[in-house]
Amino acid sequence: MLYRMPAEWERHEATWIAWPHEQSDWPGKFEPIHWVYGEFARLISRVERVRLLVPDAAARASARKVFAKSGVKMDMVDFFVCPTDRSWTRDFCPIFVHDEAGRVVATDWKFNGWAKYKNWKRDNAVPAAIANKFGVPRVAMDHVLEGGAIDVNGRGTLLATEECLLDTKTQVRNPGLSRTETEAMFAGPLGVSKVLWLKRGIVGDDTHGHIDDVARFTDARTVVTVVEENRDDENWAPTQENLRDLEKMTDQDGRALKVVPLPMPKPMWFDGQRLPASYANFYIANGLVVVPTFNDPSDRIALNTLARLFKGREVVGVHCVDLVLGLGTLHCMTQQQPAAR
Fold first, then answer.
1. Do residues 319 and 36 lie in contact, with contact meaning Cβ atoms separated by under 8 Å?
2. What are 293's strand-pairing partners?
3. How far apart are CA 243 and CA 132, in angstroms?
4. How far apart are CA 81 and CA 116, in angstroms?
5. Fewer beta carbons below 10 Å: N end or C end of the chain?
6. C-alpha 224: how far from its chain's center?
7. What share of the chain is helix, strand, coil (3-state, %, to 5)?
8. Between vectors from CA 185 to CA 184 and to CA 186, what angle results, nearest 5°?
């Protein structure tokens, strides 16, 4: 059977997130993180269901209190007790697709902690648990794939970086898999006929090149890509190269892409570590786009740029200065479940 991964802007049934509990992801800054999740859930619960993974009953009670105080619409929240290792649902939740009849199917790709961390087995078990709980058909996949490594336009074109999916030395997801074989693994499960390969991700990205910090579709032919303007910054060369490459690329029908630059915030550091702060890590919900902000002058430029591209959707910033210490922001903490077609 053939499947199709809907674009993120297509209608959602729900947004999946997971309650943060791994304190080592936010050393010295863990306390504020639950309130970031509360603010995010407040926004999303206005437009679609929020489905929250919690490790146990105590965490569920804690999340209820935070959500209630944050003004979340509690009748729009489903709590699902399901142990996890971390809270980056983009990468270990099912990648939901449509089958030929328009029904929602959960593709269950293997997850191995970004080929870096040892504690990943509970995260890897989440897709099967979700499919069983909610009665969604599940298709088990043979390869490793994280949701943050890809972005699709829903028409057959997929964005990814060579650094993440084709590198043979660092954080290797699928050892021995060639470029051709990697492209083939997208075809049937995701309905992809064309892959657009960028070279590298941004500096500080713990995943070694996830596309959702780099470039994203905003409609079937428009791509935003982060561009560093400071020649002395480490991100200048890779982001300028990505911009040049995208301007030469075409979609699945051979039509040129419309490429729109997004700024980069000034470099963010914590305890000597460069953080992967990126406006490309926005999340598209029903009638809403939620954008990470960083107390930076470029915040308003990024918000205005995305507001022009997402006409008809409210574009809202969420303060992510604390969240990004965990080496991810809004897109990383979410996974959309599309509505049946």
1. yes
2. 319
3. 42
4. 26
5. N
6. 15
7. 30, 25, 45
8. 90
Pairing mode, strands 269-270 and 273-274: antiparallel
Looking at the DSSP bridge assignments, the partners of residue 197 are 160
Q: Which of 97, 98, 94 is nearest to 110 (CA)?
A: 94
Contact 252, 194 (CB under 8 A): yes
Question: Which structure tokens are listed for 223?
Answer: 């791509």
pLDDT attached to residue 1 = 78
Both tokens of 5, joined, read 């991964």
Helices marked H in 169-313? 179-190, 236-247, 298-309
- The tokens 């990814």 sit on which residue? 160
Would you state the structure tokens that stand for residue 213, as one six-digit string?
Answer: 């910090």
Torsion of CA 133, 118, 210, 191, to 10 degrees: -40
Instruction: Identify residue 196 by its one-letter amino acid code.
Output: L
Note if 332 is an active site residue.
Answer: yes
C-alpha 217/C-alpha 280 separation (Å) is 10
Residue-wise pLDDT tens digits, 79-103: 999 999 999 999 999 999 999 999 9
Whole-angstrom CA distances from 299 to 48, 111, 294 are: 26, 33, 7
Is 249 in contact with 301 (CB distance < 8 Å)?
A: no
Say which of 93, 164, 320, 332 is annotated catalytic. 332
Question: Which CATH fold would you assign to the domain 12-338?
Answer: L-arginine/glycine Amidinotransferase; Chain A (3.75.10)
- The DSSP code for 256 is B
326-340 b/e (C-beta count within 10 Å ≥ 16 → b): bbbbbbbbbbbbbbe
Contact call for residues 205 and 167 (beta carbons, < 8 A): no
Q: Let me know the angle formed at the C-alpha of 188 by 187 and 194, rounded to the nearest 5 degrees.
A: 15
Residue % of the chain over a pLDDT of 70: 100
Q: Helix (H, G, I), strand (E, B), or coil: what is residue 74?
A: helix
Residue 61: is it exposed, middle or buried by C-beta count within 10 angstroms (0-12/13-18/19+)? exposed
* Cβ atoms < 10 Å from Cβ of 302: 26
pLDDT value for 149: 98
pTM, two decimals, is 0.98
Inter-CA distances, 268 with 134, 291, 321, Å: 40, 17, 9
